[in-house]
Structure formats: C-alpha cells, structure tokens
Amino acid sequence: MPATAPPPQDPPTRTARYAPDDHAAGRTLLVAAAYVVLLRPGADGPEVLLQLRRGTGYRDGWWATLAGHVDPGESVHEAAVREAREEAGVTVAPDALRPLTALHRFERTGPPVEQRLDAFFVVEDWTGEPELREPDKAEQLRWWPLRSLPEQVVPHERLVLDALAAGTTPPPVVSLPS
C-alpha cells in the first residue's frame, strides 16, 4: 500500500515562530530608518538635496537628507520611497534606490530604544521638482554642492556625505557607538 502524505497544515504566523516572551528580557529594540541621498549634477560637481530641520526635537537647526523611520509592516525600500514623496514631493521608483551603506548607531549603556539601523540609498533618477512639503519639520530645502556642505550637517549623515564627496563609498555596514 503506498504511503500517503500528511494533510497540509497552515503555515505558522510570524509571531507563532517565537515564544511569547522571546523579545521581552535582555533584547534591544532596533529602530530602522531610511535615508535618501538625492543627487543631481551641478556646475561644480554633484549636488545633494538637504533640508534644515526644525520642530522635530532632534538636531533642529542642522541640515539633513530626506529620511524617516520605517513604519510597521513597511520595508526599508518602501520607507525611502515614501519619505522622498512626503518630505520633498518627488516620486522615486524602488529600482532607482541604489543601496549605499547601513549605519548601526547605538549607546553601549543606553536604553534599548537607542539601537538604530539607518539604511542609506543614493537616488539620481526621480520624477517631480523637489519642494518643501513638511514645513513643521523643516524650514528650508536646498541643493548643496557635495564638496561644499554647510557646517551643521547631522553627524552620522555627514559621515556618509563626506565619503561621497571624497569619491569613495562607505563600507556596506558601519557601527557607530556613542
């Protein structure tokens, strides 16, 4: 008599793979964010689009790329596309996102929420003219020559932009303890 296969079972849910308390004790919370380095040709070399932060509670008065947290159920690529649209009104196709680097920022003795993973993408092809779309979070949107950035650029973003300005690429993953 031939063997019969067992009846198919429903696949486990995402949370069914873990014990109920698996993430409770001793684990860090990892906050993911997507960064869009929008580049265009300029008279003196590449230019990068930066926004002057305000009203966010983090590095207000500093220049920053288009960026934001990854929402629940969203991929880092989807977050990058969404942030470019929300902050600058430009449409970026997912295949126009060129992975640049990932920064792991953390505080060795800090609270669990201070574990950050920042995915940086270079974008050189988009649709629409960039314009300030979130005046409550930024007071200005401006193109800067990559080799002549303002003094106050958010430090971890500056690290990435300075590498691009020098004609190098940051390592694929960089850990930055504070």
Automatic annotation (TrEMBL):
Xref: CDD domains: NUDIX_Hydrolase
Q: What keywords does the record list, in alphabetical order?
A: Hydrolase
- Cofactor(s) essential for the protein: Mg(2+)
Q: Report the Pfam families cross-referenced here.
A: NUDIX (PF00293)
State a single Gene Ontology molecular function: hydrolase activity
Give the start-end ranges of region Disordered.
1-21
Return the Pro residues bias intervals.
1-11
Domain (Nudix hydrolase) spans 29-166
PROSITE patterns assigned: NUDIX (PS51462), NUDIX_BOX (PS00893)
Q: Which family does it belong to?
A: Belongs to the Nudix hydrolase family.
Q: What is this protein called?
A: 8-oxo-dGTP pyrophosphatase MutT (NUDIX family)
